[in-house]
Write a structure and sequence with these properties.
The complex is a heterodimer of chains A (about 675) and B (about 375). With about 675 residues, chain A is an alpha+beta fold. Chain A contains 19 helices and 22 strands. The radius of gyration of chain B is 19 Å and the shape is globular. The chains are: A alpha+beta (about 675), B alpha+beta (about 375).
Chain lengths: ~675, ~375
């Protein structure tokens, strides 16, 4: 037998005096009992040991937890299933309105703020019902600020609940600040006038703003999280280089390129790209701004064109002026000779031809001057409908293969124009249209009152306001881009050499420009052409034109001729003397002043050239006026009546005559002033 | 239902002596015995010969139950003549089985489903993952078919267990009896009597039924600390501290018993799954509660058959209980008989795992450390 258990030994001793003296047939029984006692002790020892071990483990775990709770900012409540607070831990660093130890035994939802209490009650019920964590948030307004809390209720054993309360004021504030900041930036993107696209590093679109949809046509649901290729072929190479730049982390701006819209329209854009990076600083994508500069480019081109035309105009004007002076000389000499030659004289006809050619030459220079914006000739308020009606009918009579359709607005506003010049412009348009319809066709004429704003007029440097629009549309062969861009250039023509001067449309352009209007052309090959003219309205009423007479008016007064051109002085002096005038010639402005100083008492009229080197016409006028306030002056110029001449006329000059002038015109003007 | 029982002991032979009354008509003979006795071919042949028309079906044990006696190194034989209940017996050999789940699926595939009421399963006890076996069974039987059974044992040695059907005992095998018809009444109940103690520990590393770490520390080391000197008797001594496993979703835990240890891998092999992320607590035996557990299991199965004494009760009790109850082990069997009535024939064995639903109508699961009672009546 194993060692006898002490209890058994005692018991056997009690009954048998000697514990080992039990009868043999009981020995087996005693052995089993001993075994059972020993086993029982063993079991008890093991049990005590295991309980001791587990107690130590629990104590250690408890101590660790307590340490953690000492520094844990969150507040833990242990609640029973009714919400009664059994215990609390932690929350040492939290600002608390009530000390938690005072809450033991109370109900967590019995806090003074009713809504919060109700929330807690509902959360407790939900936790018990679902046996899962329930979260809730609430706020308590303190004296100085509002504190936000998050409560998480977790089911625990025995139908208890652990409520973890955390102060989330800082987080909430940060969240709200972030939300506001995000909202602000979102609004910036959403309301930005320029299209903005955000790509990830794979080139997939992750955001587009409303401006993108407005300009390009695609809606977010059509292209978000996809790639979009809308770069026209010829721009791809350049864009690839720009993409490489972005991949290297380099932002850029102002890159001009093109894009197509959803409808396939190509528009010009100015592209800017900014790189954005992830937390590790790696390239994560790009923010691209695509500013539509199509209109800007168009306006720029128009401005360039206008400036070019202005420069050419200045040059043309100078040439015309000089040429006019020459023609004046030729005309003058021819006129002088005609005065002496009878009609039956052998050279009379030749001289007449010379006069005719000078007239035609003058007509050409007139056109050139018209282009050169050198001034209006004689403006007055004019009914454009009347003008269009009259000259289009006249044109139609000579070009029966063209059907003219007139759509003229009733009550069209009067415009301040030189009717003759406008007629010339219209005629140029009709001729151009006729030439574009070699087999006949239709010509549409529209007039309309319009209001033009600053934006539309910006390239032309004109004021916003009321205008009259005249549109001349043909159904001819039309023009391509190359021709269209040069149609107003002087001497540009599509006709063969000798068949056209190339001055008609350029002259028209200049004339309209000179009238503070502008002219546009729209055309496509095969689809006809429309010229649209805009003229500012006149504030005055309409007036009627008085035609000029064609006879020579002699005189006897003394005339001072002031001109820098010898030829003009000589010719004009001869002509005037021929018709009876006393003529004193002064070469240039200075001499003119000097002569007038000495002889002003006997001088009845001064014919004063406007454009002279050194002292020009305007300065001469000032001096003459000082010397004799009632001086009579007839201004003469190779240019059209311009603003300078206008000013002098306003100040008191009596008249203006454009070179080359005929003796009839000159004598008429002289008599108008002297009589 | 007609039943006769015999017990074989090495020194005494068969008691009562064969033949019995139902030798020619018994359809089923349940034989539970020690591994060494089952490997006695002559002995087994005598059984086959005595009951030529019966399915001789059984397994090795960690103790045999014969009436209210619990024996080691014996054979417990119960022959059953069903008057109204057809049966089907099947066995799946180890070579036919891919894994434990497949074993359940395979068995289910072999049994006729029409009219099937109950399945009684005996399985290998060392190499089978009982949880997976049960999952394979429950996934492939209709829900109205009830399943009970057990994992065979090998005393306290945990070396090799055997299952047999009409032939030599086989290791790694699994066998089942299907009971058919409307006349058979089956009741079952399963209760433990173990109490969890100490802290709850998180299973931080495991794989199936192999446990490596609790709270990131070696589970084997933890057991050795708690067992103290008894650690040298692992894995048997590990039965003294089964684990209560609770997943996040459950409130109550399943009990898991150690079957083997692996010093090299520092792991413990359990009879069923010990999933990662579940919570485990050590359990200790409460003597009185063990006995009450057995009585409680009997009561549950008694209620299930309409509160009348069943003809036969098959008791499958965990080897861990036997290790704790020791000499008093028969008290739990006596407690069962007290509940079921002395008319009921008791048989059964001490197993390495028990198969039964927690409650009648519940899902069948693998238990450890329980007394599982399956009652049969016609």
């Amino acid at each position: 037998m194993q060692k006898m258990h002490s209890l058994l030994k005692r018991q056997l001793k009690h009954y048998f005096k000697n514990p080992y003296s039990a009868a043999g047939d009981l020995s087996g029984f005693i052995e089993d009992v001993n075994k059972a006692y020993l086993q029982s002790d063993d079991d008890r020892n093991m049990l005590e040991r295991s309980l001791d071990l587990s107690s130590k483990e629990l104590l250690q775990a408890n101590a660790e937890l307590n340490s953690i709770f000492q520094v844990f900012p969150d507040l833990f409540f242990r609640l029973d299933h009714t919400g009664a607070i059994l215990d609390f831990k932690g929350g040492r660093t939290m600002d608390l309105y009530i000390q938690p130890e005072r809450l033991i035994g109370k109900y967590i939802y019995d806090i003074p703020i009713k809504e919060i209490g109700k929330k807690f009650q509902e959360a407790i019920e939900e936790t018990l019902k679902s046996n899962a964590m329930v979260s809730m948030e609430y706020s308590i307004k303190g004296e100085k600020l509002e504190n936000h809390y998050e409560a998480r209720l977790l089911p625990a054993s025995d139908r208890q609940i652990i409520a973890v309360i955390r102060n989330i004021t800082k987080r909430k504030t940060a969240e709200e600040t972030l939300k506001e900041s995000e909202e602000r930036y979102r609004q910036v993107l959403e309301f930005a006038p320029d299209p903005i696209v955000v790509y990830d590093h794979k080139g997939i679109i992750t955001y587009i703003n409303p401006a993108f949809t407005r300009v390009f046509g695609w809606k977010p649901e059509e292209i978000l999280f996809k790639k979009l290729d809308h770069v026209p072929e010829k721009y791809r190479q350049a864009e690839r280089l720009k993409l490489e730049q972005v991949k290297r982390g380099e932002s850029f701006s102002g890159f001009e390129t093109c894009r197509s819209t959803k409808d396939g329209v190509i528009i010009h854009i100015s592209m800017s790209a900014a790189v954005w990076r992830d937390h590790d600083g790696h390239w994560a994508g790009s923010v691209i701004t695509l500013r539509d500069i199509t209109e800007q480019k168009r306006l720029g081109q128009e401005l360039n064109h206008a400036q070019k035309m202005k420069a050419i105009g200045t040059l043309a004007g100078g040439i015309a002026h000089d040429f006019n002076n020459l023609l004046t000389g030729i005309q003058g000499n021819a006129s002088l000779m005609l005065l002496d030659f009878a009609e039956d004289r052998i050279h009379h006809e030749n001289l007449k031809h010379i006069e005719e050619y000078v007239k035609r030459g003058a007509e050409l220079t007139r056109q050139l001057l018209g282009f050169s914006l050198s001034g209006k000739y004689e403006v007055r308020p004019t009914d454009l409908n009347e003008l269009v009606e009259k000259n289009s009918k006249m044109f139609g009579r000579t070009r029966k293969e063209i059907t003219i359709h007139r759509y003229l607005q009733n009550g069209v506003w009067p415009v301040e124009v030189d009717p003759g010049q406008i007629e010339q412009v219209l005629l140029n348009m009709y001729v151009n249209a006729w030439q574009a319809m070699p087999d006949g066709g239709d010509l549409y004429l529209h007039t309309e009152n319009v209001f033009l704003d600053e934006k539309m007029l910006k390239p032309y440097e004109l004021k916003a306001g009321r205008y009259v629009r005249i549109a001349i549309t043909d159904t001819g062969i039309g023009m391509d881009e190359t021709v269209r861009s040069r149609v107003f250039d002087p001497f540009f023509t599509t006709k063969e050499m000798g068949k056209g001067t190339g001055l008609g449309l350029s002259s028209a352009y200049g004339i309209i420009k000179n009238h503070n209007g502008f002219i546009k052309v729209d055309s496509e090959p095969g689809k006809g052409t429309t010229f649209t003219i805009y003229l500012p309205i006149s504030e005055k009423g309409l007036s009627k034109e008085v035609p000029l007479p064609a006879q020579i008016f002699p005189g006897q007064e003394t005339i001072l001729l002031v001109d820098d051109e010898e030829m003009i002085l000589g010719t004009a002096q001869s002509l005037l003397e021929k018709i009876g005038y006393q003529v004193i010639a002064a070469k240039g402005g200075r001499e003119g002043v000097d002569v007038y100083k000495e002889q002003n008492k006997k001088i009845d009229l001064v014919i004063l050239d406007m454009i002279m080197p050194g002292m020009g016409g305007a300065e001469v006028y000032k001096h003459l006026k000082k010397l004799r306030p009632d001086v009579k002056i007839l201004l003469a110029s190779g240019y059209s009546l311009n603003s300078q001449a206008f000013q002098l006329l306003k100040k008191g000059c009596q008249g203006f005559i454009q070179k080359p002038f005929t003796i009839q015109n000159l004598s008429q003007k002289i008599r108008e002033i002297l009589d | 239902m007609k039943i006769e029982q015999k017990k074989w002991l090495p020194a005494k032979g068969w008691k009562p002596s064969p033949p019995g009354e139902w030798t020619q008509t018994a359809q089923l003979v349940l034989v539970f015995g020690s591994a060494s006795n089952l490997m006695n071919q002559e002995l087994m042949k005598t059984i086959q010969k005595a009951y030529p028309k019966a399915c001789v079906f059984g397994c090795s044990t960690a103790g045999e139950i014969f009436d209210t006696q619990v024996s080691d190194d014996s054979l417990s034989l119960t022959a059953v003549h069903f008057e109204h209940t057809p049966i089907q017996c099947i066995l799946a050999q180890a070579r036919d089985l891919k894994n434990s789940y497949h074993a359940g699926e395979y068995l289910a595939g072999l049994l006729e489903k029409k009219g099937l009421v109950h399945v009684f399963v005996l399985s290998d006890g060392i190499n089978m993952n009982g949880s997976e076996l049960v999952a394979g069974l429950t996934d492939h039987f209709p829900p109205e078919v009830t399943i009970t059974g057990g994992l065979s044992g090998d005393g306290a040695d945990f070396k090799e267990t055997f299952v047999f059907l009409n032939g030599p005992p086989q290791s790694g095998a699994v066998a089942a009896i299907g009971l058919y018809g409307k006349r058979i009444k089956v009741g079952f109940g399963s209760l433990g009597g173990w109490d969890p103690f100490g802290p709850e520990r998180l299973i931080t590393r495991s794989q199936g039924n192999i446990l490596y770490e609790l709270d990131h520390k070696s589970a084997l080391e933890l057991y050795k600390i708690y067992l103290g000197d008894h650690a040298r008797d692992l894995p048997a001594s590990g039965l003294l501290f089964p684990l209560s496993i609770r997943t996040r979703e459950q409130d109550s835990g399943l009990v898991r018993t150690i079957l083997a240890i692996d010093e090299k891998r520092q792991s413990l092999i359990f009879a069923g799954d010990v999933p990662e992320g579940a919570y485990a607590r050590l359990m200790k035996a409460n003597f009185d509660r063990l006995i009450d557990g057995a009585i409680g299991a009997a009561k549950i199965s008694y209620e299930a058959v309409g509160r009348s004494s069943p003809d036969l009760a098959v008791l499958i009790s965990c080897v861990g209980r036997k290790m704790v109850l020791k000499q008093r082990v028969e008290e739990e069997v006596e407690g069962v008989l007290e509940v079921l009535g002395h008319r009921t024939a008791l048989t059964g064995f001490y197993s390495y795992g028990e198969i039964a639903p927690f409650t009648p109508g519940g899902k069948c699961v693998l238990h450890n450390q329980t007394m599982t009672v399956t009652t049969l009546s016609e």
